[in-house]
Amino acid sequence: MEVHEKASFTNTELHKAMNLHIGNLRLLSGPLEQVRAALPSPTLTEDDKQVLQNLKRILAKVQEMRDQRMSLEQQLREMIQKDDITTSLVTTDRSEMKQKVLRYFPPERGQPVVQGPITLVLTSLKVAPTHVERMITLQYRDQSLKRTVVHLQFTSWPEL
Predict the structure, then answer these.
(1) In this predicted structure, what is the pLDDT of residue 107?
(2) Where are the beta strands (DSSP E) in the chain?
(3) Element spanning 54, H or E
(4) Positive or negative CA dihedral for 121, 123, 128, 133?
(5) Which one of 53, 58, 115, 142 counts the least CB within 10 Å of its CB?
(6) Exposed e or buried b for every residue in 89-109, given b needs 16+ CB within 10 A?
(7) What gap in Å lies between CA 46 and CA 63, rounded to an integer?
């Protein structure tokens, strides 16, 4: 008997809830245009409008950055597929390769080399059997801030 009373109570509660929401359920089962018309339209303050415009601008910038990233990734993939390092290594003379490398950093300690707005100065040079280690100081234009970079040039590969 107790189970029957609980079931009746639950059924009565369900009936009350359905009657309470029957209007909303009918609206939701109707056409989409009716549902849209029944929704309240928000009232936006000037601050809200400005925030929304900023969000739209940020979202547009994010999409632009995504597109740019995809384009750059595609370009990189194409460049990697087109690159044939074997041909360059086989057809380029070793002394010619050294000349190509030397022009990108200072050949002697203390002698500044200017590459566009950046001045490079070789501060340290250590030669090992398999590589050359250079400490190069970089300075942008006439700013006092300097950065030091370690440049490793492998002159040979160890036998495996």
Answers:
(1) 79
(2) 113-115, 118-127, 131-140, 146-154
(3) helix 46-82
(4) negative
(5) 142
(6) eeeeeeeeeeeeeeeebbeee
(7) 26
